[in-house]
User: Fold this.
Amino acid sequence: MRVSELLARIRRLPREQPITDSVNVSGRDQKDHWISWLEDYHTAGFYKRTGRHAAASFAYNHLKCPEMILWLAEAVGSPKVSLERAAAIIRASRNAQNARTCAAVRSVLRWDWVSSLL
Assistant:
Protein backbone atom coordinates (compact mmCIF):
# COMPACT_ATOMS: atom_id res chain seq x y z
CA MET A 1 0.00 0.00 0.00
CA ARG A 2 1.21 3.48 -0.85
CA VAL A 3 0.98 6.55 1.38
CA SER A 4 -1.65 8.05 -0.94
CA GLU A 5 -3.86 4.96 -0.50
CA LEU A 6 -3.43 5.06 3.27
CA LEU A 7 -4.48 8.72 3.27
CA ALA A 8 -7.61 7.95 1.24
CA ARG A 9 -8.57 5.13 3.60
CA ILE A 10 -7.95 7.21 6.73
CA ARG A 11 -10.26 9.91 5.41
CA ARG A 12 -13.10 7.36 5.47
CA LEU A 13 -12.51 6.21 9.06
CA PRO A 14 -14.61 7.41 12.00
CA ARG A 15 -13.06 10.28 13.96
CA GLU A 16 -14.02 9.40 17.53
CA GLN A 17 -12.13 6.53 19.15
CA PRO A 18 -12.73 6.19 22.92
CA ILE A 19 -9.60 4.24 23.87
CA THR A 20 -7.38 6.67 22.00
CA ASP A 21 -9.25 9.61 23.50
CA SER A 22 -8.56 8.23 26.99
CA VAL A 23 -4.78 8.52 26.50
CA ASN A 24 -4.67 11.56 24.23
CA VAL A 25 -3.22 14.12 26.63
CA SER A 26 -2.47 16.63 23.86
CA GLY A 27 -6.13 16.87 22.94
CA ARG A 28 -5.13 16.84 19.27
CA ASP A 29 -7.58 15.20 16.91
CA GLN A 30 -5.64 12.13 15.75
CA LYS A 31 -7.55 11.73 12.50
CA ASP A 32 -6.64 15.31 11.56
CA HIS A 33 -3.08 14.61 12.71
CA TRP A 34 -2.86 11.64 10.34
CA ILE A 35 -4.36 13.58 7.44
CA SER A 36 -2.11 16.62 7.83
CA TRP A 37 0.96 14.41 8.28
CA LEU A 38 0.24 12.30 5.20
CA GLU A 39 -0.80 15.24 3.00
CA ASP A 40 2.70 16.68 3.49
CA TYR A 41 4.43 13.30 3.52
CA HIS A 42 6.29 13.72 0.24
CA THR A 43 7.64 17.13 1.24
CA ALA A 44 9.99 18.18 4.04
CA GLY A 45 6.89 19.47 5.83
CA PHE A 46 6.76 20.51 9.46
CA TYR A 47 8.84 17.48 10.47
CA LYS A 48 11.76 18.27 8.12
CA ARG A 49 11.64 14.85 6.45
CA THR A 50 14.51 14.06 4.16
CA GLY A 51 13.31 10.83 2.51
CA ARG A 52 10.51 10.41 0.05
CA HIS A 53 9.34 6.91 0.87
CA ALA A 54 6.07 5.96 -0.79
CA ALA A 55 5.24 2.83 1.21
CA ALA A 56 2.57 3.23 3.88
CA SER A 57 4.37 0.62 5.98
CA PHE A 58 7.44 2.85 6.09
CA ALA A 59 5.36 5.82 7.22
CA TYR A 60 3.61 3.77 9.92
CA ASN A 61 6.86 2.31 11.21
CA HIS A 62 8.50 5.74 11.46
CA LEU A 63 5.75 7.55 13.34
CA LYS A 64 6.82 9.29 16.53
CA CYS A 65 3.32 9.75 17.95
CA PRO A 66 1.94 6.66 19.74
CA GLU A 67 -1.58 8.12 19.85
CA MET A 68 -1.64 8.17 16.05
CA ILE A 69 -0.74 4.48 15.95
CA LEU A 70 -3.41 3.65 18.53
CA TRP A 71 -6.05 5.76 16.78
CA LEU A 72 -5.54 4.01 13.44
CA ALA A 73 -5.60 0.56 15.00
CA GLU A 74 -8.77 1.41 16.91
CA ALA A 75 -10.46 3.03 13.92
CA VAL A 76 -9.98 -0.09 11.77
CA GLY A 77 -11.38 -2.40 14.46
CA SER A 78 -8.36 -4.04 16.07
CA PRO A 79 -9.13 -6.33 19.02
CA LYS A 80 -9.93 -4.43 22.20
CA VAL A 81 -7.38 -6.41 24.23
CA SER A 82 -4.59 -5.22 21.93
CA LEU A 83 -5.86 -1.65 22.01
CA GLU A 84 -6.00 -1.68 25.81
CA ARG A 85 -2.49 -3.10 26.00
CA ALA A 86 -1.18 -0.36 23.71
CA ALA A 87 -3.04 2.29 25.73
CA ALA A 88 -1.42 0.95 28.92
CA ILE A 89 2.00 1.32 27.30
CA ILE A 90 1.22 4.94 26.43
CA ARG A 91 -0.08 5.67 29.94
CA ALA A 92 3.03 4.17 31.53
CA SER A 93 5.35 6.22 29.35
CA ARG A 94 6.82 9.36 30.82
CA ASN A 95 7.22 10.88 27.36
CA ALA A 96 4.54 9.61 25.00
CA GLN A 97 6.26 11.23 22.00
CA ASN A 98 9.44 9.17 22.06
CA ALA A 99 10.59 6.46 19.70
CA ARG A 100 10.70 3.76 22.40
CA THR A 101 7.05 4.23 23.26
CA CYS A 102 6.10 4.08 19.60
CA ALA A 103 8.14 0.92 19.10
CA ALA A 104 6.43 -0.69 22.09
CA VAL A 105 2.99 0.31 20.80
CA ARG A 106 3.86 -1.00 17.32
CA SER A 107 4.94 -4.31 18.85
CA VAL A 108 1.32 -4.73 19.94
CA LEU A 109 -0.30 -3.05 16.93
CA ARG A 110 1.83 -4.28 14.04
CA TRP A 111 1.47 -2.81 10.57
CA ASP A 112 0.70 -6.16 8.96
CA TRP A 113 -2.31 -6.57 11.26
CA VAL A 114 -3.55 -2.98 11.08
CA SER A 115 -3.16 -2.79 7.30
CA SER A 116 -5.10 -6.03 6.84
CA LEU A 117 -8.09 -4.30 8.47
CA LEU A 118 -7.90 -1.10 6.42
Summary: The chain has eight helices and no strands. Residues 3-117 form one domain. The chain has a mean pLDDT of 90.
